[in-house]
Amino acid sequence: MSSRTISRAQEVVAGLTERSxxxxxxxxxxxxxxxxxxxGVSVGAFNEALKMAHDRGVIEVRRGPGGGxxxxxxxxxxxxxxxxxxxxxxxxxxxxxxxxxxxxxxLLISDAIDHATMIDINELRxxxxxxxxxISGEDLKAFHHLAMDYQRxxxxxxxxxxxxxxxxxxxDIIERDAVPVLSGSDKITPGSMKARLVFFERMTSALESxxxxxxYAVMVESTVGWRPxxxxxxxxx
Length: 237
Description:
Radius of gyration: 18 Å
Helix content: 55-70%
Shape: globular
Distance between the termini: 34 Å
Largest sheet: 3 strands, antiparallel
Structural class: mainly alpha
Number of helices: 11
Number of strands: 3
Order of helices and strands: HEHHEEHHHHHHHH
């Protein structure tokens, strides 16, 4: 998914949040297609916005006769997710966003170990195959977005209604703001992307075998931006 699609989706989420906050809980905001046309975005951007808004507890999507998009009473965690999206990239910095993300990784991984199905495992493997294609084309941005797709897939597996809105928002910030940072680095090469791909492949294997210890080992080795799992002295190295 392009950075432009993500940006447009975030604009729609802001609009849906504003409407939901102004409506009573359960009030109908409109049909999916009519709202998409009103916001003037593509189908892909609107679908991404619906997923983001739903994960944050802003809306409820009902299908079938009488269905549509409905206002939802936002939870405290959902409000926190919304506040995170208003923060300037420098406050917190991208590194601080990674730090928060990394701190929640143990919950994400343990949920995936407990709840991932073979369908989930196969979908994760499809993402890693697409990452191989991105490496072959030396497409850093595509690789980065696919890496976020992998993590969002893990999050979709989790039944934790408190974890999803906050971690989903952190993923949005990382996807929106980390690509330009990474793109300007001379350290990002096909070789370094291949090295990161190995982590995703090892994680998928650990999930398939329900090996929590192996999954946590990958989590620690692959941490980006901050190492909360090491001793205080080691984390400064």
